[in-house]
Amino acid sequence: MVDALFDSVLHQGTCGPETAAAVPDLVALATDSRIGDRLRSWILVGLFVIATVGRRALNRPAVEPPEAAAARVAVSASMGRLTARWDQESDLVRFCLAALVAACPEDGAAVRAAIGDLRAAVPGTGREAALRLAEALADTDPPRIVAALRDIDADGSPYATPDQNGLRALMSLLTPELGRATVVDSRP
Asked: Domain containing 57: what range?
């Protein structure tokens, strides 16, 4: 169901004119209190994909197509609404929100420090490494992005910027985390 929904707004992995227009409805769904954590997490991952699709391309300089830029701006403009319940969300949802902060650092700055707290709570895990990468991306710190990529054995393409490689690697870490998530992912 979620796959079909996102395929309709991000057809074959590319943004069209309808992508940015669909973001407010996706955000409304992601913030609906009747939606469970696992579905909410998948929707947040879909929003991450939408927000980063134009910046994960392996080209220099990174040229973001206009439709992708409009979609990223729409997701970024929704960050306050998406992160408003950070303290009440499960660890899994906060992990996915941390990825969105990495994708939209300016508008996710309000919860940036909380990502460090979330990372500190999961030492020695794959989630910790992914959150370290998310923090480096959120801080737009290329040397830390490169170091975080080395920590997860994902140096990336020499033809891409650290930001591009970091966003691609973070995307590849999101789905396995959702697959490993269990009901023990607790709410505070």
From this structure: 2-179
